[in-house]
Inverse folding.
């Protein structure tokens, strides 16, 4: 299993994110993923820089690690033709280290362009069209498209990278797997469910593909402080993606999670200084068939300590 590090745009500014990216590569992580948000989930997180500008800088501050969006919505805030251009540029800048992670989006980020928020089935239709457009542009040459949700008029990517950009798609169940496994290179999911991996491989056919998960942790030398920090900044996680995708802003997430207790968060997120709970959590993903997992260290001011801990204790324990 490859172990990754998450560049959380919701909890750090752009300069710090670039520095964390270099630090994570130095610590020995295999890959790095970046969230792509217009807004944080909660006011306490306090940040939301433009992910693609930061990714461009990260391609120059790192040399080895794979990079990935986790995930970009290519349907409302961004037109899919523009996402294709951005992805091709990052792939070229990184020397072929980039994977484009895509998903159907969250109201939190997409409502800002004033087009409303469609139901899940419409969002999946839009994502399916977006994948056709992005793939068509990755093929090279001029591309035209006319669908129910999007049009493309004589578009061309003038700077195609030498290596075609792989595409991962976020899924949560059978419906999205059946639709997107045949057209994606990798699966993205945040829960260690074996049925997701097995159905993905059965639907995709051919050799098994990458299955990329994500796991939050709240490392810290003081466990009580780590639990408090996790509750303050990550209690939104308790709602699940089907609920979270519908909420329009930080105030909504604060209201929806007002009765989530610190014990609830500590029961689902490894908190404190010990390696063992993190290893146990990652083992669940491994047993569920995931090939890659990106860790999320909660707290923008905790990244330097976490990276030192990862280099000296966590990554050696995982690889041992």
């Amino acid at each position: 299993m490859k172990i990754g590090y998450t560049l959380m745009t919701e909890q750090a500014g752009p300069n710090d994110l670039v520095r964390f990216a270099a630090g994570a590569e130095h610590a020995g992580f295999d890959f790095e993923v970046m969230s792509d948000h217009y807004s944080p989930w909660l006011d306490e997180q306090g940040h939301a820089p433009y992910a693609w500008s930061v990714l461009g800088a990260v391609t120059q501050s790192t040399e080895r690690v794979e990079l990935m969006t986790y995930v970009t919505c290519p349907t409302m805030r961004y037109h899919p033709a523009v996402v294709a251009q951005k992805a091709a540029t990052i792939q070229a800048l990184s020397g072929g280290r980039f994977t484009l992670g895509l998903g159907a989006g969250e109201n939190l980020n997409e409502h800002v362009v004033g087009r409303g928020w469609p139901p899940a089935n419409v969002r999946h239709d839009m994502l399916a069209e977006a994948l056709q457009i992005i793939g068509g542009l990755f093929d090279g040459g001029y591309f035209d498209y006319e669908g129910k949700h999007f049009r493309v008029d004589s578009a061309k990517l003038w700077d195609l990278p030498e290596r075609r950009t792989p595409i991962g798609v976020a899924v949560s169940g059978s419906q999205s797997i059946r639709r997107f496994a045949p057209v994606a290179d990798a699966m993205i999911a945040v829960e260690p469910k074996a049925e997701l991996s097995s159905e993905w491989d059965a639907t995709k056919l051919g050799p098994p593909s990458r299955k990329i998960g994500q796991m939050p942790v709240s490392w810290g030398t003081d466990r009580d402080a780590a639990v408090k920090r996790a509750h303050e900044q990550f209690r939104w996680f308790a709602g699940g993606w089907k609920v979270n995708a519908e909420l329009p802003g930080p105030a909504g997430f604060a209201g929806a999670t007002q009765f989530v207790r610190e014990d609830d968060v500590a029961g689902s997120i490894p908190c404190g200084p010990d390696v063992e709970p993190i290893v146990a959590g990652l083992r669940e993903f491994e047993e569920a068939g995931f090939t890659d997992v990106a860790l999320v260290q909660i707290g923008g001011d905790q990244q330097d300590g976490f990276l030192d801990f990862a280099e000296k204790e966590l990554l050696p324990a995982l690889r041992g």
Notes: Residues 100 and 167 are 5 Å apart (CA to CA). DSSP finds 13 helices and eleven strands in the chain. Residues 2-319 form a domain with the TIM Barrel fold (CATH 3.20.20.30).
